[in-house]
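Example record used in the benchmark description.
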Amino acid sequence: MKRLTFIFALILCAAPAYAQDIGTADTSITSNQYFRDLRCAKCKQEKMTGHWQGTRIDLEDKGVTFASSYVADILGNTVGGRMQGARYCHSMGWDANFDLEKFAKLAGTQFHISGIWRAGQNLTSAVIGNAFVVSSIFGHQQFRLYALYLEQALCDNRVNIRVGRIGAGDDFAAAPIYWNFVQNAIDGNPVSIPINLYFPTYPTATWGIRAKCNIIKDIYTISGLYNGDPNVQRDSAYGMDFTLRLKKKGLIFAQEIAYAPNTDKGCKGKGLPGIYKAGFYYHGGTFFDMSSDINGAPYVLTGLPAKKHIGNYNLYFHAEQMIYRKKGTDCDEGLTPFVVVTVGPENMNKFPFFLDGGLVYRGLIPTRKHDISAVGFAYGKYSDDMRHAERDAGAPIQSYEFVVEFTHKIEITPWMFLQPDLQYIVNPSGAHNIDDAFVVGTRFGLTF
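Model output (structure tokens):
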């Protein structure tokens, strides 16, 4: 509790202190102070801590923006699984962005730094025993540095480049529609990719560079190159392993192309928005075969080392399309279905085929236009090659895991939400030796 109190105090005090350090705060009551206060009064309070008596707005005008959030999951397994029980976990993130065009007249340049504090327990490993973690905010339970990068806009904002400590999951196999869910198989990124091969995603960042280019209206590409060493994500480094071990661990290359019609600002007179994209994710490191030894025979039977492969990859495809928009309402009120598919080689990937999707409806309940109702599912098929090895070893044979989620996000205020959540997990761990589980709980969030 002392640590939590300290963090809240830091969030509330850091920005005003910073403003005084850079010599921008004038405590005298002047005409500028009056107009600043008037401006604050007209602003909608979208953050719990407000505008810090105008200091937050002053800082934003000078190019400094701060953000912080707290999200907690309380989830319990009511039937099935290994046993019944409940667990709590939370994730608290904070970040600061500096517009260097305002600071140093570096046109189109931004500097960004962010961190995270996570704590709590994992209901999946402690109680259920399934593969797809029921809470997307569980992982790396510690204080941790995340992003540290420079961002440069070029060619009249048609090209955007980031370089520094970044996460591939922020740009590739990502979509805001995923964030409406609690289940980790859907929320954030399709979970098959980080399970199959090293995929630096929140809260793990690594050295990298990525470039986004708007080719023509509604069509863009993203290219990325990253350090492929998975050791940078270890908890003992607290997100601050800045080394490069490219010779031994290899590089990661990612490429995505997207078509996003009717997604620019404003919707009057436009069609319904959609996003369609395809991506390729390649890791150039060493991977071991799921079943074959160095001679191509089953390694479980021969006792020889598993065959080595240089390089592994996953392909992914995403489609979402609003199919209904409420008349006379905001642009995003209505129904949007989505679907995601990932595929990879059977001999190197635990989930060579993965499928998830769902329906998201914003404003389903009249007068509650910011509430979000959603149903989603995720299906992961275990590798046939891995199953052959399990059969040869006399181990339980894993076939698939399937989860369906029902969730409803209630906006209490612009800076607070409550999200009741239900998840039904079919064939936990994929081996037909754990009863189906039914998870009940809620997510709670604050934006400071």
